[in-house]
Structure formats: structure tokens, C-alpha cells
């Protein structure tokens, strides 16, 4: 799994209308970024580094573990492996879109 594969997976999960209504950026460190524009119609998913309503930051390995169900999102947050800046409620709506 690489950034392009994950971006495509999220793009298909988001579809034309994710119901997010806001923008979210996944900051995966050196690996790259995934920008989900849930405010546009249709929604879009790119690897652009744009300002977002919520930014979720985590290491790539932790992201992979989270997407595979091996890492609980709440535990990752409590352990500092997952950081959220901005609108935390939007970040919570994101969880179902990240599952593989």
C-alpha cells in the first residue's frame, strides 16, 4: 500500500457526496498529504497541501495500522500517535472513510 493507493481508496469511499460538508487534510509526514474536500460538489480527494477545517496528523505506519483495524483511533489519539488540529467533529466523521 502506498499514498496513491490510499488516495484512490479514500476517493472511492468519499464519492460525490461524503456528507462531511467541510475540508479535511491527512498529514502523513514525509509520505505526503491527502486533502478531502467535502465542501465542494462533487467532493474531491487530492494530494494537495491546502488549508483545511481539520487536519489529522500521524505517521504512515500508524495510519496503516489504523486503516487495517490494528490500531484503535481513540487509543492512537490518547497515546499522541494521532493529532487533530481544527474541527474535531469533522475528524470523527472521517473514521469510516479510512477503513480498508
Automatic annotation (TrEMBL):
Taxonomic source organism: Brevundimonas faecalis
Xref: Gene3D superfamilies: SCP2 sterol-binding domain (3.30.1050.10)
InterPro entries found in the cross-reference section: SCP2_sterol-bd_dom (IPR003033), SCP2_sterol-bd_dom_sf (IPR036527)
Pfam families, per database record: SCP2
Residues covered by the SCP2 domain: 21-99
Protein's UniProt name: Sterol carrier protein
